[in-house]
Amino acid sequence: MEGDGTGIPTEADDGGWVGVNGLVTNGELGATGQRIYDYIRESHAATGLVPTVREIREAIGVKSIGTVGYWLDRLEALNLIRRDAGKNRSIQLRGESPTVPVPLVGEIRAGSPLLAEERVDGNFVLPRQLVGEGTLFMLRVRGDSMIDAQIAENDFVVVRAQRDAQNGDIVAALVPGTEDGATIKHFSRKGDRIRLLPANKQYKPIPFGPDGRILGKVVTVLRRV
Q1: Burial of 29 (0-12, 13-18, 19+ CB in 10 A)
Q2: Cα four-point dihedral sign 124, 129, 134, 139
């Protein structure tokens, strides 16, 4: 294929049938478009994130942001991607379920509070349909105080970060003590009285005073079988 040095094709670039990961595009994609499309797919598969326009330009080695934008327009016209206006990472691959990387940040006690270590132990790439929107993080469960809510030892809980909760929500919370500890429980508010309730009769409710802090609401439970 011939071009003008920008990565944007001239008339001589068109023609012929080009296969794009099994999709036939009738030559409309071109070599540069193929490389951009492959890079988007490979980056998404490896990290769970789609690259930004600037990252694509640097990885592919084209001269300008405008060139990348041209090829993204072509990919979108071919229905291979779609873009959401106003988002930095706006590209979404067509025909694939949207995913989101969720960081695993430590352990949490379903029993007595246990210090939640604020370190990232890796990312789990999960379907957006499963976990929903918002700022998400994941914790590994220790203990059995929520067993009647189907949350068991070694389960992973996905938590949507938020500062408040409704009655009955399952929350991750910091509980005051000699050192702040994290736990998951049902949230209960009656007037000025707030407690964290277990889902196991062997455990007692935990008073939740003004020094306590809601980390977020549990939105998904994952279990390895």
Answers
A1: buried
A2: negative
Cα end-to-end distance, the chain, whole Å? 51
Point out the residues that are catalytic. Answer: 145, 185
Q: What is the pLDDT of residues 11-48, one digit of tens each?
A: 334 333 344 444 434 455 678 888 898 898 888 877 77
pLDDT in tens, 41-68: 888 877 777 888 999 999 999 888 999 9
CA distance 139 to 219: 12
Classify the C-alpha dihedral 143-146-148-154 as positive or negative. Answer: negative
- DSSP symbol at 16: S
Which domains occur in the chain, in start order?
11-93 (1.10.10.10), 99-222 (2.10.109.10)
> What's the burial of 37, exposed, middle or buried (CB within 10 Å: 0-12/13-18/19+)?
buried
On whether the pTM is more than 0.85, the answer is: no
List the beta bridge partners of residue 93. 81
For residue 51, report the phi and psi dihedrals to the nearest 5 degrees.
-75, 155
**Within 10 Å of residue 51's Cβ, how many Cβ atoms?**
21
